[in-house]
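During the reporting period the student researcher (J.K.) took over the structure-prediction task from the postdoctoral fellow and processed the backlog of single-chain submissions. One of the processed entries is reproduced below for the supervisory committee.
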Amino acid sequence: MASLSGSSSKKKAAARSEALRKDIDFTEQTWEPAKLYAHFFNLDLNKGLTTDQVMQQRAKHGTNSLTPPKQTPAWLKFLMQFTNFFALLLLFGGTLCFIGYALDQSDPTNLYLGIVLYVVVIITATFSHMQESKSEKIMEGFKSMIPKKCNCLRDGQIVVVDAWELVPGDVVDLQDGSQVPADIRVMTANECKVDNSSLTGESEPVDRTPNLARDMAGNLVTQPMEAENLVFYTTMITTGSLRGVVIGTGDRTAMGQIAGLTTETVNDASPIAQEIEKFVHLISGVAIVLGISFFFVGVGMGTYIIKNVVFVIGIIVANVPEGLLATVTVSLALTAQRMAKKEVLVKNLEAVETLGSTTVICSDKTGTLTQNRMTVQHCWYDFKTFRTPAAKNSINLKELMEEKTLEPNYNREDPTFQKLFMVASLCNNAKFLTVGVDGEIFCNMQTDTHKADFNLLNVDCTGDASESGIVKFAQPLEDQETFRARYPKVFEIKFNSTNKWQLSIHEQPDSDKHVVVLKGAPERVLLRCDYMMKDGEKIPKTPELEDEYTRAYEGIGSLGERVLGFAYSELDPVKFPKGFAFSQKPEPNFPTGDLVFAGLLSLIDPPRPGVPEAVAKCKRARVKVFMVTGDHPITAKAIAKQIGIIDQDKIDQGKAIVIKGDDIRDWLTVEDKTKQTALWDAALDHEQIVWARVSPNQKLLIVENNQRRGEVVAVTGDGVNDAPALKKGNIGIAMGIAGKDVSKEAADMILMDDNFASIVNGVEEGRLIFDNLKKSICYTLTSNIPEIGPFLLYITLQLPAPLSTVLILCVDLGTDMVPAISMAYEEKESDIMMRPPRNAATDRLVNSKLIVFAYLQIGMMQALAGFFTYMVVLNDYGYPPWILPWKGLHWDDYSILCTWDGQGKPSKCGYGCKDPEWKNDEPEFCDGGCKIPFKDTADPFVEFTETGFRGFKGGDEWSGDEVQMTCQRSCSWWASIPAGADKEKYLISPQEDAQFAIYCADYKADAEAVDYGFTGRDRITSVAPAPTGSFYWWDGRPQWYPNVGFQKAALAYAQTSYFISIIVVQWADLLIAKTRKLSLFEQGMQNGFMNFGLCFETALGCVLLYIPPLNQVFGTRPLAPLHWFPGVPWSMLIFLYDETRKYLMRQEKDGWIERYTYW
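J.K. obtained the following structure tokens:
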């Protein structure tokens, strides 16, 4: 039953996910009013629902609120951070350390190591937890947009209710400034306009009427977003008023669909996270295979289990780059700081590198590619089209007018232009907002307009976007307040959706005639004109002149610009003297026809400065830029052509296309998923694409289908409608100024200046960080071989361990850390934006060539340097290299015994007998080894005579009797020798036989007497037996008594020197990792932090060596200065080798060396 339930819930989730990606299923916008009223309890629009009906609807549809997503408890999210492979591996290694310490508490090294590994995991998990899961904040952002109160008609009374109380069927009244509390069907409206920009991206408010929307063919419009009789949850009424019926609440609203898509959308792992995961799996697999393999090799060779456990720990610690995640995190954070200086706020650190891997940028138009303000682009007068540059001030206007351009500029002295300027200035209610909320005047437009550092384009205005654009166009020519003051307004007819024009009447200076000025839709304005102006003279309107006008109008309109017509007339002063009471009710009491057509102004939301250059840079970097907008296809195409997103030659070649939301809607009706996918692929095969009139769910589908094709997608947006796609994209980029809180929470990065060009800077930084991470990892990996090598030789040749696990951590988490991080400060290579985006399948963070370079080339040289230094130091303490094999497993426990040649050098060495096992009440003798008898003395029980070690008779062929004759000499053993046997064969001299007789007299008589000697003692090892005649060997000469402490100290000095040799060769490794092909002499040493890193790792090495308390913790010793130098020649060799390799690569492009060693 549980599995059936789970399957059912998965199917429901999949069905919900698919439904969210389709248009919201409203049909009420196509119903006649009678049908709508009948659907809601035969609703009376003047009475509303009854209380009982409201309760029925709430029981059926729930409250008008958004359903929050299911939340995972914070504590469980934190614990889940410990379940990733990297964390589990380190925890496993730490646990082995604690087990090792529990089995042998004499050495606290394993305890320290386990603690360090656990701390690394906890810190990493804590940071990852802080970076994860933004769903709750996103939903909070949606909640903050929900209206609080609204006017509702219930039981025949207007009541103020909380928005969450609304139900389908409620009658709601909304005025200008009201926020729409639900999805509502408009039933009556008075000059109503609504701002849909947060949903559709349209910068202009749109008209809303009770009419059923129809297309050009007269068919009903079924798409809710295109219906002019619907207003949507959380949008804003800008002008007018309406009464409507609620048709959708809560999750069943356009905003609810967006919220559902946003919280339902699952983020894929970032490219850098995927790369690191693959790298960790690879390196961890190597560590585990090596560890387990050599564990069983050790067991097969008879090594103690505890020794093998320590060995496995060493292999894992040496292979796994414990500092990798810290290095990556710090590198990303440093890059984020650099991005912040470029007005880019990075919320998710991994997003920086993702941007560098981006292959497709799906960019919103309004506010991102464009300035989000309507600007006058062209004017048409005297039957010619002119350019109208947008100026920041009057000085800037003069500069712009003097620029040489393909289009001619208007001439402010032309009499027709002066009439057009007059009409545009007077028939306009927009004013500059120059006074703050506290009453403080922050600018004076009359004087500030003439200042070179003033930007009037950034000053907010009252009025709609078109009027604001016109007043900003006119202000640099003449101060608008001053100009309007000369023409006092005496009457006005405001714009309405029926007339589609606006009219005002003004007095004129130096004239007793009133002037009528008219602005509106060009075709409506022209209908009211009998004359047209040319060269300052009015001429009768003719069909030929109308044709010229039509060609101009259509030509400007094809550029995606909004065109307005302007006309005027002067009234007879006799009929309309000053003080005349103008009126429009019931009909205008003055002529509204017989006007003179002055010209056209066209407006568009223009591209941001720098955007065309940024798009061109993306093209060179082989990054596709798709425009994705809710705006009209003609406008979208015009802007896209201006900024280079689509090129005319690509359109002619069939490689560029404009795709409408209706096209996507048609694709979704195809039931065959294979055919549907083919339709998407056919569209996405185009090089340049503009997606216009798309809804939020369609934008999400665009992102998903690009990702399906293997693209790394960056998504930009500022509205609530962009939130699902922002969250789904490999990287979401929100706008800091115009962006809604929801979009900012869903995004990974925020452009604080809303400038698309900043994204291109991010692409550059992202590519740089991938390069630098690659260099950092190469630097880090090279030390793996000198870290792994000691353990491999420890278990195979049983050398005394050249390096301890704690010192490995000192390298990985200490000396290597700052130099590795310093790679983040490296400057970019000159061709970084000329390369194509990296192919995630082939251009890996860690590829085979990098592994071969780091392990088999540089790593091997580093390991040889370490072993050379280690052997030099041990030799200086009296232990030459040839005696070291097979001595390592017991080096810390027993003194070695050696014979020597004529020059006083040890020749053969090995181990003798183990320590005897004494009972609690017995005195302890020979712990650490028995003393060798002096000349002319003897001790029959020990394994030595005055000539040295007795040896194991029979050479390498061992038997219990032979071990007994050397290591188990006791009274019982002596008494067991057959009478009359040759005692010499039992390694008993006459003198020793006499001593046995004295000490063992009681035992000879009574077998139950005290048994003197060493019973049950075994040899130390069968692999390296001490030769006959050998003496203890320490301090470079034979000794009469053991000194394990000296032996251990010598090894500690040798391990310390190995550690220092890694630092010395890492100097060269850091320098060669700075570049992948250039010579160091070309790149230079300008990276100050790297220079600090070189000093830091050296200084840290000194601290670990020469501060006594740290010697105890890390097992280091204060090396003699001379012992720092054996690694220097190897460091020089590494540097010269790599410089030679790079030189040969540069000499022969795509040659053998580049193909096989360029990582």
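The committee noted the following: The longest strand covers residues 183-195.
J.K. will present the remaining backlog at the next meeting.
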